[in-house]
Amino acid sequence: MLETLGRVIIFFAFIGLGAVLSRAGRLDRAGLDGLTAYFYWLAFPCWLMVSFARLPAINATHAMALIAYACALLLTAAAVVVAVRLSGGHIEKGRDISIAAGFSGFINNSAFLGIPVVTSLFGARVSAIAPLVVAADFLILFTIGCASLAKASGHTFREALIRTAKNPTVIGALIGVLLMLSRLHLPEAVSGALDLLGRSGPPVALVALGGMLGLMPARQLIRPDRASTFAIIGKILLAPALVALVLHFLPVDPLTYKVCVFLAATPTAVSVFVQSRMYGLWYEGAARTVAQSTLISLFTLSGLALLLSA
Questions:
Q1: At what angle do helices 254-264 and 239-248 cross, to 10 degrees?
Q2: What is the CA radius of gyration of the chain?
Q3: Which of 101, 68, 88 is nearest to 285 (CA)?
Q4: Sign of torsion, CA 177 39 262 287?
Q5: Cα(35)–Cα(14) distance, rounded to whole angstroms?
Q6: C-alpha span between 44 and 36 (Å, rounded)
Q7: How far apart are CA 268 and CA 297, in angstroms?
Q8: Most buried residue among 44, 51, 96, 292 by CB atoms closer than 10 A?
Q9: What phi and psi values does residue 92 have, to the nearest 5 degrees?
Q10: How far is the C-alpha of 175 from the C-alpha of 54, rounded, in Å?
């Protein structure tokens, strides 16, 4: 509970800084574009490259668990898309936002919130599986989500694939995994520089998120739209439930089961807001979803931690 509370407080402290700057007129939309571009083009790809290069070896059991985990989250995204479309709230300024809502409903904050908390719960032995779950999140699921977001933002199928292949987040994750598989190591000076850039990413993205929230009317922050509501329900409740159900029928060890379920229950990653803003699709809704799901997760993750620990 305390570990989760501490992480959430830090998250909202950075978000609050961005909101204060935007309210004071020191951070306008052009400034937000600069912060999101820094995270998108430099910081997050560097973090993924360095982190994935250090991934542990994967065995057959872990591979099976990760495939099941990814399938459960894809099913969650599909459920969010269908729910948003059936609710009739999927058209915004003439564009279908259901895909963006589905993107917000299945990309986890597994790296910056999930791993520190799950490590405090179950100890250092989670290092054998937790980083692999993050790799599944940001190499497999994130790639699929970005391709869908590109298609939903008005591009043809071919253009969406090309844009996804050029996405720096996808490239950074892929390079990191290739380095891991080949067991090649970057020179220490290069690795240190990339690590420094990568660590600066989350605070910058959270300040940008706060800046966007600060530019929005207060009533929009309190009352989510229908798409945000379905995305939050999918992310916080449906995703971990489906992962738990799928893994229950597979021969996975108890630690792998607990880690996958807990990481699936983490709130929407701030990188979803950044990607949505870069594609110009439903980024205000994504900002609300990230902030509100993070706040709600203070209670849901604490309850789940007690359940899994018991």
A1: 160
A2: 18
A3: 101
A4: negative
A5: 13
A6: 10
A7: 10
A8: 44
A9: -135, 115
A10: 12
Give yes or no for a contact between 235 and 44, defined as CB atoms under 8 angstroms apart: no
Distances (CA, A) of 40 to 1, 6, 193, 222: 31, 26, 17, 27
What pLDDT does residue 56 have? 86
Per-residue pLDDT tens digits for 230-251:
999 999 999 999 999 999 999 9
Q: For the chain, give the mean pLDDT.
A: 91
Tokens at residue 225, please?
């739209």
Contact 240, 271 (CB under 8 A): no
Q: Give which of 113, 166, 135, 198 is closest to 278, Cα–Cα.
A: 166
SS3 at position 91:
strand
Decide: 109 and 137 in contact? Cβ < 8 Å: no
Summary count for the chain: helices (H), strands (E): 18, 2
Q: pLDDT tens digits for 277-292?
A: 988 899 989 999 999 9
Q: Which two tokens stand for residue 280?
A: 């110009």
